[in-house]
């Protein structure tokens, strides 16, 4: 959980999108709320949208895998 206070976000989405979100969260072993936060942070990072305050980055498994393929670790790095 991010440090400090959190804000409540209430929204309506199509049932299919909600199910996709639930499935993505389950796949990542996250809560739905945390999955939404991760998706927003990743979107902002990819699209140069500044965040007011940014704690340590939260990466999804796919983002970590992509980062690892960009800069493979060597024995020296480990």
UniProtKB/TrEMBL annotation:
Any single GO BP term: regulation of DNA-templated transcription
InterPro entries, A to Z: Ribbon_hlx_hlx
Comp. bias (Basic and acidic residues): 64-78
Region (Disordered): 54-78
Name listed for the protein in its UniProt record: Ribbon-helix-helix protein CopG domain-containing protein
Species, as recorded: Candidatus Accumulibacter cognatus
């Amino acid at each position: 959980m991010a440090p400090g206070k959190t804000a409540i976000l209430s929204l309506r989405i199509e049932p299919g999108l909600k199910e996709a979100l639930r499935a993505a969260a389950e796949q990542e072993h996250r809560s739905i709320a945390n999955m939404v936060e991760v998706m927003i942070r990743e979107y902002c990072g990819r699209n140069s949208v500044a965040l007011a305050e940014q704690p340590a980055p939260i990466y999804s498994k796919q983002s970590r895998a992509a980062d690892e393929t960009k800069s493979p670790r060597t024995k020296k790095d480990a």
